[in-house]
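Appendix B. Raw example, untouched.
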Amino acid sequence: MIRSTHKTWSQEVLAVKQHLSGTREAGFFTYEKRAMPLLAVKTAAAAGISYWIAKLMGLNVGYWGSISAIIVMQSNVGSTVSASRDRLIGTLIGAAFGAAFSLLGDSIWLYLLAVVIAMVACGLLNLKNSSRLAAVTVTIVMLVRRTDSNWTLPLHRVAEVLVGIVVALMISTLVLPSRARSRLRDGLAQEYLKLGALFETLMQGYRGKPSAQLPEIWKEVDTAIDSNSQLLDAARNEPTGGPASLEGLSLLHQSERAVTDLLRALELAVRGSGNDDYAAHLEPELGQLVSDIHLGFQYLASCIHQWKFDAAPKGLELEGDIVALEAKMTAIRPTGLEFPHAEILRAYAVQLHLKQLARVLRSAQIEANETVGASS
């Protein structure tokens, strides 16, 4: 198995050129913390401009535009669009029910009934994220003291929210935008490198060198997958995506999950091993397949970074490695009675998972190439 303390080419490119957060980026050097000052400035600008426009338009108080801008401004364009949609719909539904129930009287029971109906309406319309915003708007419309008509406050409220949303969307999209699709592409590339490191750690355990850092590596992998899932949801809301197609990113994310499931199965397969003699007789074919699978993770990460999947990997023959290992296992099968049954079963389980891993990685590259080619 190949083991190096130096970063590979793809790791250097991802860490230096894309500024991805990795195991060496901690404290104030993570991507999120470096991006926070810019997000803070953009949020403050959106809040100030929204308040200025609302007062210029002669709206009721003006600060609801600022509040809306602050709430909907997210770390990327896709999340901002999603938050804006939820807030606007919730405000419209809440304003409508609040104004309507205000016409029936000034009773706390009418107010509570309006809150219930507004939230239920959001639920029935599959607008769960808008339900609380609808309830807040009902509260403002029905409980805030007013001297004008029942419809003035809800109309001003909707107008101010709309101003805040439009300003936040414009600043998020036009001022140094952070695209969810770009962040997802970076996250997927980094994730495949992490999965490669996890694979290498698992196979070291199979060779009798278990790592105490395995739980920590698993935690990093699970955190990255959850982050990529959130970015994929946000990317679906972005009007444009740049060079990375949503179909390709979604496919790679699905492959990422498939690889993770296989690695969990591989972890169970290698459990209890420690310098198995039967596995030693599968060398060098077993080691070659393991080495090439590890390189396959790095190769796929490099393809994602460049968003180019048509270049054939030099010296990477996963199918040939699989055939060679199967031939070796067939050749030593007559001597299998000389080894403990647990070692034999473990070797066959490991071989099965290695073949599946190799083919999933290869399939991800082929399918991504077809998807990217079709969308270009």
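End of appendix B.
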